[in-house]
């Protein structure tokens, strides 16, 4: 099982339907389609699930990002108000 942890360093709106979270992958390989959660205390402690739609690494679209690399993760715009700078997105996934 892969342990997922991605730090939120920057938020950027991309067009009218997507936003990007730029940050660092701090654990196992992170892949397109992985599901991540952020604990949002402003939302009464509920967890919001983020499914990675796209990953960019050095201005290229890739399928995965390794431990220690910085990257941009893309999500639907509807989730933009559920994450803040400094948050951590975390989760578990099958190998």
UniProtKB/TrEMBL annotation:
It comes from Prosthecobacter algae. This is Uncharacterized protein.
């Amino acid at each position: 099982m892969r342990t997922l942890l991605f730090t939120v360093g920057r938020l950027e709106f991309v067009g009218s339907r997507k936003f990007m979270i730029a940050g660092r992958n701090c654990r196992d390989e992170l892949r397109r389609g992985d599901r991540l959660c952020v604990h949002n205390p402003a939302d009464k402690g509920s967890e919001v699930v983020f499914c990675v739609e796209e990953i960019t690494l050095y201005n290229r679209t890739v399928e995965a990002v390794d431990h220690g690399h910085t990257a941009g993760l893309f999500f639907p715009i509807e989730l933009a108000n559920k994450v803040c700078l400094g948050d951590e997105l975390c989760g578990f996934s099958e190998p």
